[in-house]
Amino acid sequence: MQFKPFPKTKNATTYLVKVADNGSGISKEVKERLFYPNFTTKSGGMGLGLAITKKIVENANGKIWVESEEGKGAVFFVEIPKIKEL
After folding, report:
1. Beta-carbon contacts of residue 43 (< 8 Å; ≥ 6 apart)
2. Of the candidates 1, 22, 32, 61, which lies 20 to 30 Å from 73 by C-alpha distance?
3. In which band, very low, low, confident or very high, does the pLDDT at 49 lie, cut at 50, 70 and 90?
4. In terms of C-beta density within 10 A (0-12 exposed, 13-18 middle, 19 or more buried), how is residue 73 classed?
């Protein structure tokens, strides 16, 4: 996992968290529904984890997204604003 200011400048206004794997990737059909509540690809899953994560990130004025290509893994990104120092 990488945690760094984005863009790569001293005065960056956001942080970007990047989580990557080298798994089988995510199909276009699944990617379109990935952040919907109650959507899961697991037999025992409830499909709430990414939906809740998205809501938390958006409530912090951030963004979350995934980039993936089948057979080449996936990369999840979370971008959140830096908190201004008091």
Report:
1. none
2. 61
3. very high
4. middle
